[in-house]
Design a protein that fits this description.
This protein is an alpha/beta fold. It has 16 helices and twelve strands. The structure holds pyridoxal-5'-phosphate.
Length: about 400
């Protein structure tokens, strides 16, 4: 039987290194990393100016919850972006600054499980549910919290969203937490408002915390995706509240600032209090100068819409260059292509190896972003590769042409 330690060592990026070990990349082509979702543009100049100006406060311990001004900037941004009634998000009660959402997504499973343990009979193991394919931190969070991890297939057949009608009631009754990723990594799918509201009602009925990871919410092409907090308010119109819901937001993708390590968690007061209690023990706090710079980023939409225009152009390039490749589909949001390679390459590992050896492109096999789902070794990622379109326009055109060359030859 797989131990928790074994399970945690099975990390996607390590598996990719093992897959490509000994495989020579195309000698005549520049190598391009497409396996990591790291925006390649610069973040606005005012960030470094503010950090230099505020440097004296590196001499102080940051507060665990976050600076008042940072929390206000986050609450104002949420209120404007998701058209929440003024005052719904109280910066002092409903928001916490986090050092990037990765650590927050991991840690919140611990506080949600501690809370659920107070409600379940002794000896009954809480579950933590997440979409499959997944951002692996959800799985790590579930294992780290000692819960039973339950992956829910999010396939083309279910619109790349988990089908909660297929989950046994008993599993939902034991659920401490359900992660949703909206827009989704790796699939780029968007879960609409009605489905979110349905999830909120389930969270309240079964007594679990719904954690909506919205770190790609600002990279959209047609209309802005709905938010977890608006769904929390509208799910039960007679009793609007943020109970049982938290959202995670990050500057890493929205502002192209993954190295700044700033985001926030916002939501219902009980969940935020539990989370804060645990953060006193375990969490990385955000240095003061970084919070001041981050507050300015949350208050500025100019760079965000510039970034969005950039990604929209990149997707148009992908449409042009890859439109004829069988299996190509533009994602609804985000900057990942979730490319169905079954017809052109057979399976995702072959695709990743060939794109590396023939084209010098490093892509993530879908299988490594997914888990077996009850049919032997098969996973819902087997027929896909994930490709991060995060470079400049010329590079993205070059990337797409190389993919097309290996997929269907030069046409
Ligand atoms: C779905 C998803 N959630 C959260 C994160 C974490 O981002 P950060 O820790 O930079 O906020 C990432 C990063 O790649 C991600 O893809």
């Amino acid at each position: 039987m797989l131990t928790r330690l074994d399970a945690l060592k099975d990390y996607p990026f390590d598996r990719l290194i093992a897959l490509l070990a000994g495989q020579q990349p195309a000698p005549d082509k520049a190598q391009i990393p497409l396996h990591v979702g790291e925006p390649q543009g610069a973040c606005p100049d005012f960030v470094s100016e503010i950090i230099a100006r505020e440097a004296a406060s590196f001499g102080k311990y940051p507060s665990v919850r976050g600076d008042a001004d940072y929390l206000s900037a986050a609450a104002e941004w949420l209120t404007n972006r998701f058209s929440l009634p003024a005052g719904t998000v109280d910066p002092k009660r409903n928001v916490v600054a986090v050092a990037g959402t990765r650590e927050a997504l991991y840690l919140i499973a611990n506080s949600a499980v501690l809370r659920k343990e107070t409600k379940l009979p002794a000896g009954i193991k809480p579950t933590v549910l997440y979409p499959n394919p997944l951002y692996h931190i959800y799985y790590g969070g579930a294992l780290g919290a000692g819960a039973e991890p339950v992956g829910l297939p999010a396939t083309a057949e279910t619109g790349f969203a988990p089908d909660f009608d297929a989950v046994p009631e008993e599993v939902l009754d034991r659920a401490a937490l359900v992660y949703l990723c909206n827009p989704g990594n790796p699939t780029g799918a968007v879960i609409g408002r009605e489905r979110l509201e349905d999830m909120v009602r389930r969270a309240r009925r079964h007594g679990f915390l719904l954690v909506v990871d919205e770190c790609y919410s600002e990279i959209w092409f047609d209309e802005p995706p709905a938010g977890g907090l608006s769904a929390a308010l509208s799910a039960e119109p007679d009793n609007p509240s943020l109970d049982n819901v938290v959202v995670m937001h990050s500057l890493s993708k929205r502002s192209g600032a993954p190295g700044l390590r700033v985001g926030f968690t916002a939501g219902g007061e009980e969940a935020i209090d539990d989370f804060l209690m645990l953060r006193n023990y375990a969490a990385a706090t955000v240095p003061g100068p970084l919070q001041t710079a981050a507050a300015a980023l949350w208050r500025d939409e100019t760079h965000v819409s510039r970034n969005r225009d950039h990604y929209t152009t990149l997707m148009a390039i992908a449409d042009e260059e890859l439109g004829a490749v069988p299996g190509y589909q533009r994602p609804a949001a985000g900057f990942f292509l979730w490319l169905d390679i079954a017809e052109c390459f057979g399976d995702c590992e072959t695709a990743a190896r060939r794109l590396w050896t023939e084209q010098g492109l490093k892509v993530m096999p879908g299988r490594m972003m997914a888990q077996p789902f009850g049919h032997g070794d098969e996973t819902p990622g087997d027929r896909y590769v994930r490709i991060a379109l995060v470079h400049d326009q010329d590079t993205v055109r070059e990337i797409c042409r190389r993919i097309r060359a290996s997929a269907i030859g030069n046409i």
